[in-house]
Amino acid sequence: MKNHIKVNGRLLQTNKRFKQLKESQKNWIVPELYNLYHKKMEEIRTTRKLPPHHRDTVISSLYEQIRDREIWIPYDEVKKYTFGKTAKMVKSFKKQFPELSKEIEAEHAKK
Predict the structure, then answer these.
(1) FRET label pair with 43: which of 13, 18, 99, 100, CA 20 to 30 Å apart?
(2) What is the pLDDT of residues 42-85, one digit of tens each?
């Protein structure tokens, strides 16, 4: 039991992977990640992947929400999952917000 700890009378696995979460937990985390990432992209006006400090704020706020819902998964696993989905999130931003994407690209072209 070297990969388990006891917290509040519950046994938690410290090396849990994203794929080991329940389907309902994954179905909550993925859209939430996309929403947070897209909001941050809108906020800083970019259609490319986020700079490291912005990306870390997205991951941290997502992890706080995961902890609030009492889903146990290591922070590094959430970070790794986010890195794997970055390209997909950028593409989906361009598909969901085509007008905004064109506007932002035009702003960047002027600079």
Answers:
(1) 18
(2) 999 999 999 999 999 999 999 999 999 988 899 999 999 999 99
Residue 63's closest CA among 17, 22, 32?
Answer: 32
Residue 110: predicted pLDDT:
80
In this structure, is residue 11 part of a structural domain?
A: no
* Residue 47 falls inside a structural domain: yes
H or E stretch including 79?
helix 75-96
Find, among 87, 28, 78, 88, the residue nearest to 58 by Cα. 78
Stated as kind and residue range, the H or E segment containing 42 is helix 23-44
Query: What pTM value is reported for the model?
Result: 0.86
Q: How many distinct structural domains can be found in the chain?
A: 1
Q: Which residues does 101 contact at the CB level (< 8 Å), separation at least 6?
A: 47, 93, 94
State the first-to-last Cα distance of the chain, in angstroms, to the nearest integer: 57
Q: Which residue has the tokens 């410290």?
A: 14
Nearest residue to 37 via CA among 88, 104, 77 = 88
